[in-house]
Known about the structure:
Blueprint: E1 9-16, E2 25-32, H1 36-44, H2 51-56, E3 59-63, H3 77-86, H4 90-103
Antiparallel strand pairs: 1-2, 2-3
Amino acid sequence: MFKIVADPTFVAPVPLSRPGLSAPIVVQVTYRYKNRDELRAWIARSGTVDDVQYLDEVIESWTGFQDEKGEAVPYSVTALSDILARFTPSRGEFFRTYLSELTDSKRKNS
C-alpha cells in the first residue's frame, strides 16, 4: 500500500569515491525527508551556506564509516566535516544520492 504521508526519514546507499580504488565504497545514510517545496528551497540554498551545514540539514545518521582503528564512526557534524575535507567528491555524492532518492522513479525496466 502506498502511504500518502512520507516517513520523516529514509535510508539510502551512498557510493563514496576513494583515491586509488576503482570502485566506490557504499555506506548507508539516513536522510531527512523534504517535500517538493522544502526540497526546492534547500536546493536554491546550495552554494550559499557551508557544505557541512548544508548537508547536516538532511543527514540524520549513517553506518559504514570506520576510523583508523577499524571502529565505527557515528554520524556527527565533526565526522561529516572531516569526510568532506578529506574526500572532495563526497559532497556531491551525498547530495546526488539525496536528490535522486527524492526525485527519480524506482520503476524497473521490464
